[in-house]
Amino acid sequence: MSGDHRPTSADRAVRGRGATIRPFARYESTHSEPVDDGWRRDDADAPPVRTRVTMERARSVISGNHSPDVPFELSINPYRGCEHGCAYCFARPTHAYMGLSPGLDFETQLFAKAGAAARLREELAGPGYVCRPIALGINTDAYQPLERRLRITRELLEVLHETHHPVTIVTKSSLVERDLDLLAPMAQAGLAQVAVSVTTLDRGLARRMEPRAAAPQRRIETIRRLTDAGVPVSLLVAPLIPVLTDAETEDLLQAGAGAGAVAAGYVLLRLPGEVAPIFESWLRTHEPLRAGHVLSRLRDSHGGRLYDARFGKRMTGDGPYAQLLRQRFRLARRRAGLADRMPALDTGRFTPPRKSSRDGQMDLF
């Protein structure tokens, strides 16, 4: 992917969706491209893009992480694809592995892991399992709209609560408040903390860029409600987008601190694989006057490229402009009274799940 996308007749805003294009899946043997023959209906007459959900049985739910750039070793993703539809989502390329487009397919063709809680119970009961904090919802949001109906995240949390297993959550959804009955007592025991992702305080920009996520002010209120319930919360400015949102850095940190957040961090906009043309198409459709400046600043931060995948560089960039953003964020964080990291969670309380007679082995007591 070149990242030098130019608007075509196929680029258009889709109401309630983030991606403006549906790029092909890179592993498919055949590709098709839409062509405007002059008969396409106006956007107002176009049928809505429907969401389809496929239930799948996962052979395992806990994934290991070996990247030095992220502060967790284990993670669980209850869903593949994300209905929030964030135009910049770094996880979009994973849909190509299933023969689906990282564009609109990523936010409309979703996969849910049925029986995930039962599988988690089996993995936690394994004889070689070593307790380390589990990060819930990393690639895609564990509290995306689909969770309201399927409750897979809720069932996973119930297992973690039962076994006194530490958990961290990253979300941009207010639905996390639903599970305060589990999170609050876990937090009191040093077993839970939440990071709320807020990219911008501009409701209009958020509506176009993160169409199905909670409004920015609602996310700030979620920080307040979690804090009031005793759950430690960090503010995650992810992604920080040059030119488009970086001017809000100080206001975002002050808003998070005012709502009770105790720490804050950021991730510079990442455009791996197909995300580059998808986000560039979004920029040229929704922010045409600033698109070139945004992309220029990203190249300044990645040695002339739109993305640098090297560890130590991919999350914050490099070069004078990236260093300026980093210094500015650190200063604003210090002024807001926020820490740079959350306290460690307690792994010593973990109690493996009890085996039932269906496992072929009765408990001794």
- The name of the CATH architecture is Alpha-Beta Horseshoe
Structural Rg: 21 Å
Poorly predicted residue ranges: 1-10
Strand content: 5-15%
Please name the CATH topology. pyruvate-formate lyase- activating enzyme
Helix content: 25-40%
Tell me, briefly, the overall form: globular
Question: What structural class is derived from the secondary structure elements?
Answer: alpha/beta
| Tally of domains | 1
State the end-to-end distance: 60 Å
Please work out how many helical segments DSSP would assign.
Answer: 11
The main β sheet shows up as: 7 strands, mixed
**Strand order in the sheet with the most strands:** 2-3-6-7-8-9-10
Number of strands: 10
**Secondary-structure element order, N to C:** EEEEHEHEHHEHEHHEHEHHH
CATH first level: Alpha Beta
- Mean pLDDT across the residues is 88
Describe this structure in words.
The protein is α/β, with parallel strands linked by helices and 365 residues long. It has a single domain (49-340), classed as Alpha-Beta Horseshoe (pyruvate-formate lyase- activating enzyme), CATH 3.80.30. It has eleven helices and ten strands. It has helices at residues 104-108, 116-124, 147-150, 152-162, 180-188, 203-209, 216-228, 249-258, 275-286, 291-301, 320-335, and strands at 52-57, 63-64, 74-76, 79-80, 109-114, 134-136, 167-171, 192-197, 233-240, 263-268. It has a seven-stranded mixed sheet with strand order 2-3-6-7-8-9-10, covered by helices on one side. It has a three-stranded mixed sheet with strand order 1-5-4.
